[in-house]
Design goal:
With 209 residues, the protein is an all-alpha fold. It contains 11 helices and no strands. The protein is elongated, with a radius of gyration of 23 Å.
């Protein structure tokens, strides 16, 4: 399936390809969810053709890509092979797949691009989102410290911080407690929000486009 000169190179290419399949499947599902406003019934109708187009695309046939692939236009100059950062790392432009490889890849794609997989995701929450929430809450509730009395307050504070940005959250808490903040303090809190927003937008911009 891969044409690397050595066993180690082929191993790295397999790893890159597995990451590419995962990334592509997530992008497809995300765009389908956005297209159909997270109406799973409508998404399920598109999945069979999307799965077939994706499998054909990896096999070098982009005839269905423009209409069904979602992430590949099928054009020679701008297609998934040129977009993918994982395939590009090893200049993978073709896969030498036999029928056994195609069946295996089809089963792998079904893990993300099938009605059964979609139903198993329920609210379409990803592992990254869950880990993000855990990291955010661990700021107020670190695992190595037991807060027997203030746990609920710390949890509520962490949730409020995540929902309203750090600076805004601190300002709202002070206003509720009747604390008057100086102009320099307000500017500092405003700067916290700006930095927080910039970091979020920067991380989003690192996604494959």
């Amino acid at each position: 399936m891969f044409y690397g000169r050595t066993k180690e190179i082929r191993k790295e290419m397999k790893k890159a390809f597995s990451q590419d399949v995962k990334c592509r499947s997530s992008m497809i599902m995300g765009q389908l969810m956005e297209k159909h406003n997270k109406v799973t019934a409508d998404v399920c109708k598109d999945l069979p053709k999307v799965l077939e187009a994706t499998l054909r695309c990896y096999d070098g046939d982009c005839s269905m890509c423009k209409q069904y692939s979602v992430v590949c236009t099928g054009d020679d100059g701008y297609n998934w092979w040129t977009r993918s950062k994982y395939l590009g790392c090893y200049n993978i432009t073709v896969l030498q797949m036999d029928e056994k490889d195609k069946l295996l890849l089809q089963e792998i794609l079904k893990m993300k691009l099938s009605e059964q997989a979609l139903n198993s995701m329920k609210l379409y929450d990803t592992t990254n989102k869950n880990e993000g929430v855990h990291r955010a809450l661990s700021v107020n509730l670190p695992k190595n410290v037991i807060h027997s009395r203030g746990m609920q307050a710390r949890l509520a504070s962490g949730i409020h911080r995540n929902n309203n940005k750090p600076g805004t959250s601190a300002k709202m808490k002070c206003e509720h407690l009747g604390v008057n903040l100086s102009e320099s303090s307000l500017q500092f809190l405003s700067k916290m929000d700006i930095d927080y927003t910039y970091k979020q937008e920067y991380e989003k911009s690192q996604k494959l486009t």
